[in-house]
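Reference record
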Amino acid sequence: MCCLTAACHRVEEPSPLVARVYDHELRMDDLAGLVGDGVSAEDSAAIVDNYVDQWVRQTVMLAKAEKNVKDDFSRQMNEYRNSLLTYAYERQIVEQLLDTMVTDAQIAEYYEGHSGQFLLKNSIVKAVYVAVPLKNNVDGRLRGLVYKRDFDEEDVVEMQALATRAGGTGSYDADVWHPFYSLQNAVPITTYNENLYLKQNRSIVLADDSLRWYLRILDYKITDDISPLELQRDNIRAIILNHRKLDILSRLQADLLKEAEDGGHVERIKVNKK
């Protein structure tokens, strides 16, 4: 009977010891999941050795701190635990209730109603340009395209074809906004007043010792203009979703408070101030 009783109360042996620092122990079970599948034996050993070394270093510091620091952190630790629990629960509820569908109409409506939030910090441009060797046989045609009054997509295609024929390169996406400073990195534009420069220059031909640039600025917006909707679409979607999250959490807090109060689980005791 005694043997049977002993078997029933057998204590499971701890896993093998890996390292010890004072009264702190690191055991094999603590390393579970540290090394992923497919890792070579050599890399696995290096990962484990590094982890153990870091654990020893940190635990030595912790042991010394435990011995010498007399502050009581129980309140902070309890507050931190409460914050983690609350955050995990809120995230769980948001994941269940959040409608992640944001339509183009909702984005446009928010943009129109909050355009003052989207002021540009830098000037931006839509532009196409080519850079070709200084000596080329397409200069006249490229100039004609750049200075053309009604510049369109077919002209962009022709610019690209002419630049390729002359051994040049360029940028041909007419629908993409770029910071003006990035255009200046590609084309040697020099100006001390970029706002005035953009207002006065739409067709530009520049040259250095080896290349000539042919640039057409199709559209621009200067610093403190309202940023175009297409640049703010992702940002606005994130804002709308965040507003929905906050609304869910606000309603959750109100509902839980009402439930607790209705159930008689909330008692407020007035504190007399001296």
User: Anything to note?
Assistant: The first helix runs from residue 2 to 8. The radius of gyration is 34 Å. The chain has three domains: 14-68, 75-117+229-256, 120-221. Residues 120 and 227 are 5 Å apart (CA to CA).
